[in-house]
């Protein structure tokens, strides 16, 4: 059975529900969890005749993203610990979250990725896809999708 889950989270309501279910799953199977948050990269600065963005914006963006990651991961670890599940967390800045998720699962030695489906539909889903879909199609590690 599975012994080490990677649980990507972004702090959304659906992601929080997946975190709760992953904790239940881990408790029932005796597994441990590594929660993962893929931080977005700072937006590119655009220059014209003069800088369009403040030169300190990327630094402020990075601090805000790190703060959001710390808050989201801290909450997940706290809930898991209260439920008696061993848990730790990792975060990484990446422009391609699905690559970061798969890489984190491999680096941490996880034997399953347990993640929420954010399910874009219609033309948006066709054009953009979803990180869950990308993880499903690129991961060699089994993926359990919570809906």
TrEMBL record:
- Superkingdom of this entry's organism? Bacteria
Report domain UspA positions: 1-147
List the InterPro entries hit by this protein, alphabetically.
Rossmann-like_a/b/a_fold, Universal_stress_UspA, UspA
Which SUPFAM superfamilies does the UniProt record give? Answer: Adenine nucleotide alpha hydrolases-like (SSF52402)
Q: Which CDD domains match?
A: USP-like
Give the protein family. Belongs to the universal stress protein A family.
Name this polypeptide is given: Universal stress protein
Q: Which organism is it from?
A: Azoarcus taiwanensis
């Amino acid at each position: 059975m599975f012994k080490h889950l990677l649980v990507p989270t972004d702090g959304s309501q659906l992601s929080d529900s997946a975190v709760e279910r992953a904790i239940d799953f881990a408790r029932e199977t005796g597994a441990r969890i590594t929660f993962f948050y893929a931080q977005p990269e700072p937006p590119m600065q655009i220059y014209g005749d003069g800088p369009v963005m403040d030169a300190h914006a990327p630094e402020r963006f990075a601090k805000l993203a790190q703060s959001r990651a710390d808050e989201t991961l801290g909450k997940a670890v706290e809930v898991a610990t209260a439920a008696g599940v061993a848990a730790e967390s990792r975060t990484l800045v990446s422009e391609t979250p699905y690559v970061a998720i798969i890489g984190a699962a491999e680096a941490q030695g996880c034997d399953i990725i347990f993640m929420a489906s954010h399910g874009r539909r219609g033309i948006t889903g066709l054009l953009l896809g979803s990180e869950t879909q990308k993880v499903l199609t690129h991961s060699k590690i089994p993926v359990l999708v919570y809906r």
